[in-house]
Amino acid sequence: MNQYDFVVVGSGPAGRRAAIQAAKLEKKVLVIERGSRVGGVSVHTGTIPSKTLRETALNLSGWRERGFYGRAYRVKKEISAEDLRRRLLITLDHEVDVLEHQFSRNRVAQLRGEAKFIDANTLEVTKDDGEVLHVTATAILLSVGTKPFRPPHIPFDGVSIIDSDEILEIKELPRSMIVIGAGVIGIEYATIFSALDTTVTIVEPRDTMLDFIDKEIVEDFCYQLRDRNMKLIFGQTVEKVEKDAAGKCRVTLRNGRVLQAEMVLFAAGRVGATGNLNLEACGLEADNRGRLKVDPATFQTSVPNIYAAGDVVGFPSLASTSMEQGRIAARHAVGAPTSEPPQFFPYGIYAVPEISTCGLTEEEVQQRGIPYECGIAHFRETSRGHIMGLDSGLLKMIFSLKTRRLLGVHIVGEGATELVHIGQAVLNLKGTVEYFVENTFNYPTLAEGYKIAGLDAWNRMGELKAPAPIA
Ligand SMILES: Cc1cc2nc3c(=O)[nH]c(=O)nc-3n(C[C@H](O)[C@H](O)[C@H](O)COP(=O)(O)OP(=O)(O)OC[C@H]3O[C@@H](n4cnc5c(N)ncnc54)[C@H](O)[C@@H]3O)c2cc1C
Predict the structure, then answer these.
(1) What pLDDT, on a 0 to 100 scale, did the predictor assign at position 343?
(2) Whose CA is nearest to atom 51 of ligand 1?
């Protein structure tokens, strides 16, 4: 009875997409999830909650209108943690409902409990009520995701010294906050709280942040953060975090500087949730960050019937890419043909302002020795930007001088994570600068920035003399 063609451990984006794909290929599929509800980190503590929080913060604070009405403009004067939670709970319920429906419609069986290996084809599942079941499978997908990294020297208390899961449970909005770690998660929360009038300091051990993003975009982004009084401290590690007698958090940096705030968010990394899987029993081993190694084309591990996808396999650790990985893994596992993932995928950082990027950065183009030209558009140059009261926002495109093809698109500003898909399509369809110059864009839109940036590059690249070589 407990024999399946394909068993998925973890119901986040990778597991969910894999399970449905295998079910659509008429396989008998089971999803094992240890959380009380399906959805994984993405639905319960990661993507959806942080984006809902962001949307609520921007709406209630009137952030998007401040370009027009001034920095003092507010939609709601006193925003509470409860205001933020209310919308979050409604959104999460909706997401879970959609997922449950997808599973039942596709006849994907579900089991609530924690899975661990007995051997490469058998899992032991301990349910919440203590009952233990054994499940056997022809193929298994590990899509167990990650959990926040909690080093022993940080005295987490779940109230004012917290990780990125606990931030969703806070009872009051802090007046000041220190965010340790300027990775994507740290930056997103730091800028969301800054939009809610919390005084934010970011501490990052490296000399820069988001080093996989085009440098010019990061510089513009940092300028915008500093312009609204956020403090960015680079090149400093945290020696000690403690609370004083009045309950205020004190963060001592290696250079001796002491920072104080009402709340500390530790957001410096995540580790793969592989610790309880008893991997030795199936012949797998995780690395020192709990991650699993896979073949990047098929997501097969070194044990042929076991696959891994999503955050547990490491970069880029996005819900969007996890879904694709899950789909490819499921198809390969059940013997269906698979296609290569597209060369370029978009990366979205839902900070305030948003950053989104697809393709090569200017630094990567230089490292590869490709002769290139850049085109830039400022959102304030577009009529839509005027209407929206935008005084910031930048869209940058990089073109090859040899093939005239678009090599990368990089955006910081309002709507970046939506706008990037135009560039992504041109990039993956191998389009050239002529696409942007010769096509009409809706007016007034921020997408018109593509036309402006295209023309900016084209003016320096000169007219197309002969058909561009097909690379
Ligand atoms: C704060 C934050 C913001 C984010 N924002 C974005 C964003 O804007 N866009 C984006 O694309 N991505 C974002 N991400 C990343 C995104 O959430 C992850 O890439 C995605 O959730 C990874 O999916 P996954 O399938 O690997 O598993 P996860 O979503 O991590 O889910 C894994 C599931 O496995 C279950 N599990 C683990 N071990 C076991 C076991 N032994 N037995 C049974 N079940 C088990 C867990 O309970 C969990 O439900 C964000 C992440 C965080 C933390």
Answers:
(1) 80
(2) 46
pLDDT in tens, 193-227: 999 999 999 999 999 999 999 999 999 999 999 99
CATH class of 161-268: alpha beta
**Residue whose CA is closest, atom 48 of ligand 1?**
40
Which CATH code of 3.30.1330.20, 3.40.630.10, 3.30.390.30, 3.30.70.270 fits the domain covering 347-464?
3.30.390.30
Q: List C-alpha distances in Å: 401 to 372, 398, 457, 461.
A: 5, 9, 10, 7
For tokens 């997401």, the residue is 95
Token code pair at residue 2: 């407990």
Instruction: Map out the domains of the chain as residue ranges.
Output: 3-148+271-333, 161-268, 347-464
**CA of residue 363 to ligand 1 center, whole Å:** 30
Give the residue from 182, 189, 181, 199 showing the smallest Cα distance to 54: 189
For a mutational test of ligand 1's pocket, the pick from 16, 42, 111, i.e. the residue with the most ligand atoms closer than 8 A to its C-beta, is: 42
Q: Sorting pLDDT into bands at 50, 70 and 90, what band is 467?
A: low
Element (H, E) at 187: helix 184-195
What is the CB < 6 Å shell around ligand 1? 9-15, 32-35, 40-42, 46-47, 50-51, 114-115, 143-146, 164, 185, 273, 276-277, 310-312, 317-320, 322, 348, 350
Do the two domains 3-148+271-333 and 347-464 of this chain adopt the same fold? Answer: no
pLDDT digits (tens, 9 = 90+) for 97-139: 999 999 999 999 999 999 999 999 999 999 989 999 999 999 9
| Protein residue whose Cα sits closest to atom 30 of ligand 1 | 145
Which CATH superfamily, name and number, covers 3-148+271-333? Answer: FAD/NAD(P)-binding domain (3.50.50.60)
324 CA distance to ligand 1 middle (Å): 14
Find, among 107, 101, 112, the residue nearest to 9 by Cα.
112
